[in-house]
Amino acid sequence: IQVDEASQQLRDYIDGLEVDPFRMQQVEARFSKAMELARKHQVMPEGLYEYHQSLVQEFAQLQQDDNQLEALALTLEQLKQAYIQTAEVLSRSRQTAAQKLAEQ
Description:
The chain is mostly helical. Helices cover 88% and strands 0% of the residues. The protein is built from three helices and no strands. It has helices at residues 2-16, 21-40, 48-103. The longest helix has 56 residues, at 48-103. It is rod-shaped. The protein starts with a helix and ends with a helix. This is DNA repair protein RecN. GO terms for molecular function: ATP binding. May be involved in recombinational repair of damaged DNA. It comes from Bowmanella dokdonensis. InterPro entries: DNA_recomb/repair_RecN.
């Protein structure tokens, strides 16, 4: 009796459901895209989320590496300019010392 009642309730519930064709089309398109991505990246469909997260982490690491590279390039340029200025000061000092030495 309980099984019959449960099956009747399920039939009533199903009869009351309205299937939106547009929504069904969207769901099928997303499902197809998920299956396509799973084949493309050679992972199981249920592993797509974890694979996506690993790609996001890898991308973030690459961006961080790019930022570090830019910072290092800027530091290198600053050090190069400091080196050039110090070398010019040393050169002028040597020239002055050379003139004094030549006079002596």
